[in-house]
Amino acid sequence: MQIKPLADRVVIKTVEAEETTKSGIILAGSAKEKPQVAVVLAVGPGGMVDGKEVEMLVKVGDKVLTSKYSGTEVKVDGEECTIVRQSDILAIVEE
């Protein structure tokens, strides 16, 4: 199954948080924060949203930072994904 987001929506998949610190300490599940870095899987076409023209600035494959509790979580072919509005994306991560 493939998801094609509408308007200014973006499908993202959260990147797993590292389980150890830089000094080698292994973190317990409760000590980990919800990761905010995600990879873009699909991008809507943009266009008119709420009476304003929206140009899509992200593309498939981009790593992005998102608001902590934004979006709607969905399961596609057994994988957890999140659908967010482009405005919920805070930044594109460049490495």
UniProtKB/TrEMBL annotation:
Protein location: Cytoplasm
UniProt similarity note: Belongs to the GroES chaperonin family.
GO molecular-function terms, A-Z: ATP binding; metal ion binding; protein folding chaperone; protein-folding chaperone binding; unfolded protein binding
Keywords: Chaperone, Cytoplasm
Domain of life the protein comes from: Bacteria
Name the UniProt record assigns to this protein: Co-chaperonin GroES
Gene3D superfamilies: GroES chaperonin (2.30.33.40)
Organism: Candidatus Allofournierella pullicola
Major localization class: cytoplasm
Lineage, broadest ranks: Bacteria, Bacillati, Bacillota, Clostridia, Eubacteriales
Gene Ontology cellular-component annotations: cytoplasm
